[in-house]
């Protein structure tokens, strides 16, 4: 159950903006969650907005007081200390509503899907174009983190979607990105 939270605020400078710092911060968090096998820590973004599309400058970590203390007791923020302000661990407001914070994936490029199909099925460009029309493309309107895959090294956009608000918390585990389609975090 996510009873406590801590806010990590990125502090941009003339060379690095808030979105880049937030991506780097989340990338470090992802590595720390994997290394320390912390499945009870979820994330949220208090500055989340669709119009304008932004996650804001705060990454909020949710969990038990013990799990957050365990994470903060490690050296995972070492390289970002000059660009991140960390609050103390606090109890989430008792009357908070709850929601899921999850990843949303999109089929964003018909051309990329066609190239993939050609490799996998040994098809020609014409065959792949027939199988995958341009109409499959979607233009995402959700805020995202720009991060790099640990397994392939490729950069990608991690789109963040919010579930509906609820009065009741739903316990559960979070993935190595701190996201879940079922477990909720307090939303305040």
TrEMBL record:
InterPro entries the UniProt entry points to: CRISPR-assoc_prot_Csy4 (IPR013396), CRISPR-Cas6/Csy4_sf (IPR042564)
Alphabetized Pfam families for the sequence: Cas_Csy4
Gene for this chain: cas6f
Protein name per Swiss-Prot or TrEMBL: Type I-F CRISPR-associated endoribonuclease Cas6/Csy4
Region spans: Disordered: 114-134
Cleavable signal peptide: none
Transmembrane segments: none
Highest taxon listed in the record's lineage: Bacteria
């Amino acid at each position: 159950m996510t009873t406590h939270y801590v806010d990590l605020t990125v502090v941009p400078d003339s060379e690095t903006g808030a979105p880049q710092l937030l991506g780097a911060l989340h990338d470090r968090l992802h590595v720390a969650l994997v290394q320390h096998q912390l499945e009870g820590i979820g994330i949220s973004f208090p500055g989340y907005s669709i119009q304008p599309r932004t996650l804001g400058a705060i990454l909020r970590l949710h969990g038990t007081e013990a799990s957050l203390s365990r994470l903060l007791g490690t050296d995972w923020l070492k390289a970002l200390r000059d660009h991140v302000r960390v609050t103390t661990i606090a109890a989430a407001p008792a009357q908070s509503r709850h929601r899921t914070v999850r990843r949303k994936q999109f089929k964003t490029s018909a051309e990329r899907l066609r190239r993939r199909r050609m490799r996998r099925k040994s098809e020609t460009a014409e065959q792949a174009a027939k199988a995958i029309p341009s109409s499959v493309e979607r233009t995402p309107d959700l805020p995202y983190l720009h991060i790099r895959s640990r397994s392939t090294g490729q950069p990608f956009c991690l789109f963040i979607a919010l579930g509906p608000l609820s009065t009741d918390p739903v316990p559960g585990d979070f993935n190595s990105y701190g996201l879940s389609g079922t477990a909720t975090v307090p939303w305040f």
